[in-house]
Amino acid sequence: MTYAAGRKIYDSDSHVMETLDWLTAYARPEQQGLIKEAATRAGGVGVTKAIDKAKARRADPEATSRLLETPLISGPKGWAAYGATTPEERRHALDLLGFERQLVFPTFSLGQFARSKELDVLYGGADMLNRHMADFCRDDPRLDAVGYVPLKDPALALEAVEAGVRDGVAAFWVSSDPAGERSPSHVDFDPIWAALEQHGVPLVLHIGGGRMMDPRYHENGQPKPTDFLGGGENLRGKDYHSISHSPQNFLTALIYDQVFQRFPKLMCGVIELGATWVPGFVRILDQGHHAFRKMEPLLQGLEMKPSEFFRRQVRVSLFPYEDAGWLIQDVGPEVFMFASDYPHPEGGRDPIGKFDAALEQWQIGSADRDRFYHGNFASLMRMQAG
Q1: Which helix (H) or strand (E) holds 13?
Q2: Measured between alpha carbons, how far is 87 from 140 in angstroms, rounded to an integer?
Q3: Over the range 71-89, which residues count as b (16 or more CB within 10 Å of their CB) and which as e?
Q4: Does residue 183 belong to any structural domain of this protein?
């Protein structure tokens, strides 16, 4: 019996756990030396030890057999998890989990290049990442590779999208912050959104892709705690409320500046950024539209309410401790998606159980549960059948 227990479940958030040479191993000859191997300090204490221990386990059939005696979802996480690093194990892990589709994100390799001001580093790193992600997922149609496209240079960004699509990238992570001196809704980016729409490939936002709380708020004269993972994404308690601020700005720009209106089939996933903010946000979108449309031609020209664009083109994953039933009841059944975050610990040891309990408490019907567990993922990916 799989963890999904025969139910149709599409997983909107999972990860690979990269090795230190994961990017550099995919450098083309002309990209050699462009990017350094990952710095171990970026992932917390003991990263090298954890990677080596996982490698040794994979080489030991008895150790692997013992690992598989524990259900994967409640077993070890990070590099120690089964299927965290190699595509062969990941395919088997998906057999055991029972998820029929799974979006696969990188974990920390963006940190090696995504903040660079040098275009060759920025787009060279994206090229290495996208090709490796595509190869990781290539031999299993259940695995959907998430690549990355920097928006700093619109022409190079469009080239990265087209190259990534050819390589097999199924979704493109973009930063939710302004792209240089431009809003992501700037008309210079229209060819990128047009290409994604044409190819049926969504853009996705993810934790780590936008600014969080100003770090000075952590300078409180008290000892600084380690983050949730002891490193990596560097998320602490005070950061949690702010992880959605940058995505909300991004989505407001795309809706108010008519990007979603110009590209009605362009889909956007908001992944591992929480969802409890959504009910207030859709109300604020409509309130802002009502209050300012007399003065702003772009707002006057919107053909629907901003919240209607959001419901049509945005899909949002949940953390397992969020109230899925209340969110569906308040916002509607077409927005929210199941996510495991496997093999990261934030996904918890029984996300299905926690989501089921919330859905049952709010008496969410079977059709809307299906949308949560697979239908909204299908609409994000523009699959023919959900």
Answers
A1: strand 10-15
A2: 9
A3: ebbeebbbbbbbbbbbbee
A4: yes
- CATH code for the domain of 132: 3.20.20.140
Strand-pairing partners, residue 204, are 173, 269
- Residue 25 counted as domain residue: yes
**Is 327 part of any domain?**
yes
C-alpha span between 309 and 199 (Å, rounded): 20
User: How many other C-beta atoms can be found within 10 angstroms of the C-beta atom of residue 258?
Assistant: 17
Q: Which amino acid is at 11?
A: D
Taken in order 214, 218, 224, 230, the sign of the CA dihedral is negative
Query: Residue 355's CB: how many other CB atoms inside 10 A?
Result: 24
pTM over 0.90: yes
Residue 273 is assigned to a structural domain of this protein: yes
- Structure-token match 């490939």, residue found: 201
Expressed as residue numbers, the domain containing 274 is 10-380
| pLDDT tens per residue across all 386 residues of the chain | 999 999 999 999 999 999 999 999 999 999 999 998 876 555 555 788 999 999 999 999 999 999 999 999 999 999 999 999 999 999 999 999 999 999 999 999 999 999 999 999 999 999 999 999 999 999 999 999 999 999 999 999 999 999 999 999 999 999 999 998 999 999 999 999 999 999 999 999 999 999 888 889 989 999 877 665 554 446 788 888 899 999 999 999 999 999 999 999 999 999 999 999 999 999 999 999 999 999 999 999 999 999 999 999 999 999 999 999 999 999 999 999 999 999 999 999 999 999 999 999 999 999 999 999 999 999 999 997 54
3-state helix, strand, coil in the chain (%, to 5): 50, 10, 40
Q: Rounded to an integer, what distance in angstroms lies between the CA atom of residue 28 and that of residue 371?
A: 42
Farthest-apart Cα atoms in the chain, separation: 70
Q: What is the tally of structural domains in the chain? A: 1
